[in-house]
Specification:
two-stranded antiparallel ribbon; 6-stranded mixed β-sheet; binds zinc ion; alpha+beta; single chain; 3 helices
Length: about 150
């Protein structure tokens, strides 16, 4: 998976305005021609019916159907890739709710996404990007992606 600087920047901005609460949204992207690699193109803010506290986040669904339909009808072919979460902590990991949500998404035909990605962003120290990336394969255990630059 490739995470361009502008998408990282967008997520960082959305984390900053969450003021110590969890937040999150949807990841959009396209695939390389061999479909081996997803290239993120956008991260959305939380839908307006989302709810959040200091240690929990329920991503809402307002406008989601229309959003996904619009995505798939674009000539450039963009796809739902997964979710991003902000956990306001130094050390981050998927919560049991997160694992449940990702599993549901991988099984939900509305998303057309059997292997959704979850990016969890912790509190950044200095300019460091404190994030972990997981893939949730359909009917499998989550796999963490390691960071490498190209
Ligand atoms: Zn989470």
């Amino acid at each position: 998976m490739i995470l361009p600087g502008e998408v990282e920047h967008k997520i960082r901005g959305l984390c900053a305005i969450a003021r110590g609460r969890e937040t999150g949204g949807i990841l959009v992207g396209k695939y390389t021609p061999n479909r081996a690699t997803a290239i993120l193109t956008a991260a959305t803010p939380p839908p307006r019916d989302s709810k959040a506290g200091r240690t929990w986040f329920h991503r809402g669904v307002a406008g989601l159907q229309r959003f996904l339909a619009k995505l798939w009808s674009k000539p450039s072919r963009e796809y739902y890739i997964g979710e991003w979460h902000h956990h306001p902590a130094d050390i981050v990991a998927p919560s049991t709710d997160d694992v449940r949500q990702m599993k549901r998404i991988s099984e939900d035909e509305n998303y057309h996404c059997p292997e959704p990605v979850l990016i969890i962003v912790g509190d950044g120290r200095d300019e460091r990007w404190n994030a972990r990336v997981f893939i949730f394969p359909f009917a499998g255990q989550p796999v963490e992606l390691q960071e490498c630059s190209m």
